[in-house]
Amino acid sequence: MLGITTRSVYRYVDLLEQLGLKAQRDAHGRLSLERGAGEEAPVGWNSFTPQEAAYLDQMVRTVGRDNPLADGVLAKIQAASEVTAGAQLTYRAHVAQHVEALGLAIQQQKQVVLRGYYSASSQSVSDRRVEPVRFTENYASISAFEVETGLNKYFNVDRITSVEVLDEPFAFAAQHAFFPPDVFGFQGHSDPHEVEWTMTLRAKLLLQEEYSASTACTHPTDDPLAFLFRANVYNFKGAGRFVRGFPDDVRVVGSKEFLGYLSKNRKTS
Asked: Residue 49, class by beta-carbon neighbours within 10 Å (0-12 exposed, 13-18 middle, 19+ buried)?
């Protein structure tokens, strides 16, 4: 109904709890947000449509601004019209804190720990000690050298719970490398390989939710409910993992290399 994955919902619930809102689960497993003790719901915050709120705001400002009650009325109207926007701004501020901390670590050449990083590939949450190298376009991901694995990887900024900047300076600067990532976050300095498939609307939405860069590689077809995806990738793992996860929604049409990878992987798995 929300148009996002179940994993994303739980990430957002975790974020709300970090912001001080307590999530409670009832006997049927349903989640709700509990107000603090003694806290009252804002009066009339959901009584008006956005259009009604804008109209009332205009009325108060033009004919009743000098009334001592005007400020209180305007505050309630503002709450009615901006509650959704406020939630979006709060989430963006949370992500912006990660960007600021990582940018500082790059500038000072300090190691960091990505606390509670959610990995879509392994579907696990863990702490990652890294040396941040460079942001990708629009600060969506950070390219970093992971100390434990000795590999340069990409980490989605919005999947980080918190960033801890350490006192330890870079110890592996000579091994840092940055290559523009493919749609699925894999980097490489060899020639990329082409993948191509058609998919349903459901698969398209889930692909774009997990990998926002896929939007530029997705094209409409004659069927309004089917879409063509074509991209160059450095590693078949990400594309293969997605295709295998939606056997009824995705039909691979190329390339021969990718079809061969899927066939071989199916036989060995």
From this structure: exposed
